[in-house]
Structures are given as C-alpha cells and as structure tokens.
Amino acid sequence: MAMSDRLLKAWYEGHPALVLLRPLESLYRQVVLRKRARFLAGEGEIYQSPVPVVVVGNVTVGGTGKTPLILWLIEHCRRSGLRVGVVSRGYGAKPPSLPWRVDASHSADVAGDEPLLIVQRSGVPLMIDPDRSRAVKALLASETLDLILSDDGLQHYRLARDLELVLIDAARGLGNRRCLPAGPLREPVERLHSVDALLYNGAESDREDGFAFRLTPTALVNLKTAERKAVDHFPVGQPVHAVAGIGNPQRFFNTLQTLHWHPIPHAFADHAPYSAEVLNFTPSLPLVMTEKDAVKCRAFAQPDWWYLAVDAVPSPAFVAWFDTQLMRLLPARLLP
User: Fold this and answer.
1) DSSP per-residue string spanning 54-93
2) Model confidence pLDDT, tens digit, residues 152-194
3) Which H or E run includes 167?
4) 120: closest CA among 299, 294, 269?
5) Strands 211-222 and 100-101
6) pTM score, whole prediction
7) Structural contact between residues 314 and 206, judged by C-beta atoms closer than 8 angstroms
8) Where are the alpha helices (DSSP H) in the chain?
9) How far is CA 279 from each of CA 4, 226, 308, 328, rounded to the nearest angstrom?
10) Strand 305-314 vs strand 287-290: parallel, antiparallel, or unpaired?
11) What is the DSSP string of 314-325?
12) What's 210's DSSP letter?
C-alpha cells in the first residue's frame, strides 16, 4: 500500500500515529486561516469578474464528484439560454503557455484529464491556469459569457466568487475532521458554515445542512470505436478488470458491483498516467474504467476496453435552489 493510501486510510478510519502530525496541522491551520482573513478583509490582489463566478469545490482531499456536477451545471444553465465558461487549475497539465484554452483534440498531457473530459463531453469554453483570476480574464477576452464555473478553487482567494458550492462524499464524510496533514481537510470544518450550499454525493435524500446528489451510470462507451452500449451490456456476474485513477476508486468499484458485474479492482493514484503495459492484466477480460481515465488511454486502447459514463443527478430541491440563485445573480433579460 502506497504512503498516500495509508494516510487516507488513517484519516478516515483512524490511527494513533496521527497525533504526531498535530504540530504541523496547527501551522497549516494558521496559514489557511490567515489567507482567508485577508480575503474577507479585501486585502491583496482579488479579481472581481464582471460576470458571476460559481465555485464548485470541496474542503477534503480526494474526489467528491466535482466533474460530473460541473457537467450537469453546464447543461442546466445552457437550457436556460446562458453562455457558460469554465476555469480550472488543470492539475497535471503541461501546456505550452498559460493561460491555455483547452480543445477537444488536445492530449491529457497538455490539457489535464479533468479539463479535457469536460471539453470533450460538453464543448464548453474552458481555460486552464493555476492562477484562476488570470484564467477568467483570458476566457472573457475570448468569449462573451454570462456565467463562469470554477472547477475547484474554493481556496483560491485571489478570485472573488458569487456562489460557493461544496461537495462532500456522503459515505466518507469529513474523516477525522482534522486539517492536513493530520486529517483530510484543506480548511477547518468551520469553513462549511460560510459556503452557500453543501451537496452530499451518494446521499439518499436531502439533509438538514445540505442537498443530495448521486452519480447515475448512463452508458458503456468503447474507447476505440466510441460505440455506446446500455449498462446492462455485460451479463450478470461478468468479471471485468476495473481501473480507477480517481480520488476515491472504491466508489467506482462499488458502482460496478451495483450493476451486478464482478469487478477485479485496479486502483491507481488520482490523475495517474497510463500505458498499454501498465494496463496489461491477466486473465484476458473486458476492461472498464472511469471516463476521466479514458481520456488518457484512447491512443493505445484495446478492442474490449470501455469506460462507464455517469451523470450527476441533483435533488429537485437543489435544482430549485440553484435556479433561485441564478435569478438573484443574473439580469432578468438573460433568464427565461
């Protein structure tokens, strides 16, 4: 088990050795609290976009379903006639220059896996730059937009925001509720009291403090041919090699089990690079991966490699709440 995996296990299941990291946690808390205090006081360089900015982020390390929710937000806003753009840090991306406009034809090495997935799925204008303020400026210079979604960026306080949506894994929660490196939190748990909405990925119903949303499998897509098959394409009990290089691979493996297949799990680090050799498993079986992994594997995919497409399905209460926020943020002429 890799060090990162052992640390994740300790954060969410407990380990007495974590107490040794408390002094480092204390220093980390001081830094992030000071950074937030400066933002609230309006100190430093803070860019205020001329169009509303909606941040979709989290306070924990690891995956919470941001990318599927951003895709849902893009389509929901488009159905209202809004012109939407996205900015992202572009984790792992190595573009020739920054900021960088992502095109569907780019490689994941250049664009980053999550930005490339978003553009290939939606065609949305998307700019990557660790400096999200600079990304927003570049995007607005090249596109006429009504709204900007920030993929992550909750802790990027150089960018002013009009709405903060925070995603939480309903099953894992906040772990031991401690900050890095003694726990999985990027900011103290009290930060959640100041955000506009909490969304619990995998929750059965809305909670007193937030909304439910779930990820629903919609199709099996062949990496080589782009052929789409229904999620019941494989028979019940079909063994498959299951590949997941995401923040919480077990969630993906559990999803395959709910489809009544027999996944042989192959967990990789979040944003892991792949090669044909790395994915050469025995015995020879169909291979199913996440869509985020698939954008890095198409060039060397085998005929029986598939990705599972999933869509975010927020609760009706969240949809109504979000529409109310759009009415508050946007001029009446933009909304139906």
Assistant:
1) EEEE-SBSS--SHHHHHHHHHHHHHHTT--EEEEE--TT-
2) 999 999 999 999 999 999 999 999 999 999 999 999 999 999 9
3) strand 163-169
4) 294
5) unpaired
6) 0.95
7) no
8) 3-13, 22-40, 66-79, 108-111, 113-122, 132-142, 249-258, 291-294, 316-329
9) 21, 19, 17, 49
10) parallel
11) E-HHHHHHHHHH
12) B
